[in-house]
Design goal:
With 175 residues, the chain is mainly beta. The chain is built from two helices and 13 strands, in the order αββββββββαβββββ. The strands form two sheets. Strands 1, 2, 3, 6, 7, 9, 10 and 13 form an eight-stranded antiparallel beta sheet that branches. Strands 4-5-8-12-11 form a five-stranded antiparallel beta sheet, with no helix packed on it.
């Protein structure tokens, strides 16, 4: 092997590396992204807080009447519009009881004449989930009959938002 053939081979290899490195589409990284952690109940995939972190739940009580108002705890917020209630009610909101994004409201069975808005803060990137797949599920107080009720991720709020017409358990899920 001559010095000339070694130089030609090295030059060809260097050019191949340069052209490969300059591709506009780098292609898949080959590293699979982990699936978001969920707990499936009644066919609904409820999202789990990253790392299984359990947040000490707290209950907040706020009087809200015909003029509307809001209540919030542990990254969740309920906005009740004017006219949704005919009389003043002591509304309770209990934050995350488990390692899920779960909230419980009272008094149980309360309904609104105009839908209230439930907002639950979440970081889709930290969860490893496409924000378009995020929704909110509801269940009775027993929590064994979850159904997806809807909602959408609002990037400007960093939260999933959904209108609700009555109280029950609510949690972030995959749709």
């Amino acid at each position: 092997m001559t010095l000339r053939s070694i130089i030609h081979g090295a030059t060809a290899l260097a050019l191949a590396l340069v052209f490969t490195a300059c591709e506009s589409d780098p292609g898949p990284t080959g590293v699979p992204q982990p699936a978001p952690r969920t707990v499936t109940v009644n066919g609904v995939d409820l999202l789990v807080v990253p790392g299984g972190l359990k947040i000490a739940s707290q209950t907040v009580v706020q009087k809200i009447g015909p003029h509307g108002g809001s209540i919030s705890v542990d990254g969740g917020r309920l906005d009740v519009p004017s006219g949704a209630l005919v009389q003043e009610v002591s509304i309770s909101m209990k934050g995350r009881e488990t390692d899920q994004f779960r909230y419980k409201f009272g008094p149980s069975g309360l309904t609104f004449d105009t839908a209230a808005t439930l907002t639950i803060q979440v970081d889709p990137e930290a969860l490893g989930v496409d924000p378009a797949r995020l929704a909110i599920a509801g269940a009775s107080d027993e929590g064994n009959d979850w159904t997806v009720i809807g909602g959408a991720y609002d990037e400007s709020l960093g939260a999933v938002v959904v209108p609700i017409e009555h109280f029950s358990l609510y949690a972030i899920c995959l749709d």
